[in-house]
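Open question from group meeting: does this chain pack into something compact, or does most of it stay loose? Before anyone orders reagents, we agreed to write out a predicted structure and look at it together. Recording both the input and the output here so the notebook holds the full record.
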Amino acid sequence: MTERTHGVVSMHFADGSSIDTWQSLTMRETYTDPLGELTFETTPPARFIADYRARLAKGELVTVLVNGVNQGVFLIQTCNRKHGKRGSTFSITCHTPLVTPYQSSIDQALVKKTPTDVPLTETILQSLGPYGFQTIIADTAASVSTVSGKPIDGRAPAVSLPALKHNESHPQQGETAYQYIARLITRLGCCLRMAPDGTLLVGKPDYDQPPVYTLIRTLSGKAGPGDYFVGDVDVVDTNDGQHSEAQVRGQSNDTADATQTNLPVARVQENLLHPGRPSYRSPIAAPYKPKNVKDKGSRDRATATSTAKLELGLQAAKAFYITGTVDGFVSVTGRIWSVDTIAHVVIEQEDIAEDMWIAERVLTLSRGGGEGDGEHTRLKLLPKGALVLGDVPS
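Structure tokens returned:
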């Protein structure tokens, strides 16, 4: 078993310069959030204030490394500078470069109405090209291995980008560039994220890979090798926002002659989507809690079925989850904690001993010298198969 190593965090800029001293740092990566968040505070010596002000300016790109391993590229959104008698403090908030199309109204003149069976990659680059995005990849295995710092065997093959095609579509009034793409890609069972180098990354959750971490909480002491939770472990189990089934009523391609009988309709039951642990459970008092959706983007039964799974599967990520904190940024396996990986989770109080999917990581670093300071990683874990983004074309 590898001894735990401390994480050395550094930030690198386009001009080759770097910063590796600060008072606090928090970096959050959530699988379903394309923006993520990086916040940190640094107190530069007086002679470096002008230099820090130039480098830590809004609109600048920073690359974050942990122990020399690339954790992602971030765009500085806000810099709050405080100057007092005891010195100057820079408080920085960053997001991934997708924050710009996420907040920008799409230029409908650039994105023309598309016909049927259009490759999604063409629409993505047409929509996001004005924001500097020119390349799309689907190799999530390589991206996860890059972030963790070690190869992870047994990963699922990459999504086939040529197979991702969509029907006639055009941006809606007031829709942002990212919202338009997200509306199309989630119906195809995928999501759009950022690779560590800032490249656009298309993928889906990988639930079939082997576990590469072990997380333990016991009352009886040591339960074998692995990483042990520190502090409280929260287990959330709720029916709030969950449904027993979803029905999607689409729109016929021939809208002029569409009738009630030729509209594509699909119904998906929650207990069949998640047979191991249904997100909605009320076997006696209220077993029937449907959700009905009208979706103009569902032009055939297959798409309507995928959309129904999406309606249930997105909410299922909130039905049952575990959050807990471990020491450091690096597991005892020598891997940096990474999203879209599998951990074997043991919680004696819940009779849990199962493989779970890491949906979120929050790395925190504090050098204030008080209780709770140091390096910690807070993890959010979901049952395997919980988050469903529809059916992926093959």
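Observations to bring back to the group:
The first strand starts at residue 9 and ends at 12.
The mean pLDDT is 90.
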